Amino acid sequence: MADAATETTQATETTVVESWTEWDPLAHVIVGxxxxxxxxxxxxxxxxxVPADSDMRGQWGRRPQESIDRxxxxxDRFADQLxxxxxxxxxxxxxxxxxxxxxxxxxTASQFGCxxxxxxxxxxGREILEATMSYRCRWFExxxxxxxxxxxxxxxxxxxxxxxxxxxxxxxxxxPDYLSESISIAQRLDWAAAKHFVTTEEEPLFDAADVLxxxxxxxxxxxxxTNLKGIEWLRRHFPEHRVHAVNFPGDPYPIHIxxxxxxxxxxxxxxxxxxxxxxxxxxxxERNGWEIVDAAQPAHNTPPPLCYSSVWLSMNVLVLDPKTxxxxxxxxxxxxxxxxxxxxVVPVELRDAYAFGxxxxxxxxxxxxxxxxTDHFPAG
Length: 380
Hints:
The protein has about 375 residues and is an alpha/beta fold. The chain contains eight helices and 19 strands.
């Protein structure tokens, strides 16, 4: 844990919100917390994500305290590792996730948590944007970050705090054919190839973790949590950026891009070998000399207990600068690959926190990276 002097020093630093890429030198970041995290009750978006044979099926309620304590221990250690490298670290303020969510359009009996700020907050330049979210249980999750965002707004006169329009999340937002537990993997892969996802085009939907930042360009995954209207909303909201929609037909559960497609430094991207970027989407990168490399195999055959994510959190890394990357400590094959690619690898123990919302990229959200808005795709 950071001592009080460190916390005070960091709190008095000048706040500058600015981040244009996934790899510029990291100076200020939010690291999530596992406090009071719940397994949410069944709902359309959630049911489509959980495999039929998962130990998550049929369970909901507060996670065991010992698992919460262990996850927080690892998140606190990670925050201290970043502080030791001179990176300012802020933490969210958890709300009572046992409270139900009620709107005129839906009701769900509990919420989720605030371990993965990357899902909710998208930093583009001098702006932090709150995503719509597509899970009903995550409707109020943005409240955990409002104390931080309010402080940034007061301290940085150039900071823009924006929030995308809240969706209604009625049943019209979800395809009923995804509600069956008996959908085969083959059927899911056919639907993914046809871009037939659980979310409809009723209204704009996107999660921030479906967006990767490449300076002037934003690459956005079309899948379960982000629809085409959500991508169009981002295109209109960021008119100075070029917004590119991508999809990965090899993924039967396409939620969030950061365990599938991971930029490491200018010109280099790791791609999940089971979810390769299709040929029609590769031109942007190939024309501009980017190398897309198959990520190393995960070190584990199964995810941890009660975990939504796949074993491919192995490639959910946090780049600290173009020469340095944080990798989960047990993911030895991914660490070895990145070492061979010329990166300094910083091992971080986090596997016991995976179940609370993801890996090292998921559990962080950029506030500041030192860099400017550069065109990394000049060939268009």
